[in-house]
């Protein structure tokens, strides 16, 4: 279960970075902001999973 959540976090980070880059390239501020938000969600998910791992061991 934790592995799939970590993978989901990585995927959100990658998707967010890509969306942010495309938004910046085409001059779409909304898309760029959405990309940053998705990336932040991925970062938060990764941090949560890392914290769980610390308390498991």
Automatic annotation (TrEMBL):
Residues 9-57 have a biased composition (Basic and acidic residues). It comes from the Bacteria. InterPro entries: CsbD (IPR008462), YjbJ_sf (IPR036629). Residues 1-57 are annotated as: Disordered. Residues 6-57 form the CsbD-like domain. Belongs to the UPF0337 (CsbD) family. This is CsbD family protein. It comes from Streptomyces rameus.
